[in-house]
Structure prediction request, 134 residues.
Amino acid sequence: MKKLLMICGLLFSVITFAQAQDGAGRQKMTPEQRAQRSAEGLAKKLSLNDDQKTKATAIFMDQANAMEKARAAGNADKEARRAEMMKLADDTDAKIGAILTADQKKTYETWKAERKERMKGNRMGQGPKVGGEQ
Prediction:
């Protein structure tokens, strides 16, 4: 009986510990943090100059604030909210494209296409590539 209780207790503690790990690496980021992270990633990918990086940060900041407002509005219609988010993403994409050079635009378009393929693969149940960049 003692062994059974001990095993149950151990099992319970392992399950509790495993659930506590959920999302530990993903803290809720502020719009400013999201904008900064997006701009940093873009600057790294496309070798942006300081002026472009500043403009990109402002563009991503506008997008992050608009998305935050859309989420806060709590639109119950999932499709309407999705359409609004897609429109925001398209607007941001156009603004980013306007600050890039021709070579940077080519790299940006290639990167977007690769990202879209990865996302499509994730939706198909394949999951992310092991050891690959997300």
Q: What stands out?
A: The mean pLDDT is 81. DSSP finds five helices and no strands in the chain. The helical segments are 2-20, 31-46, 50-73, 78-99, 102-123.
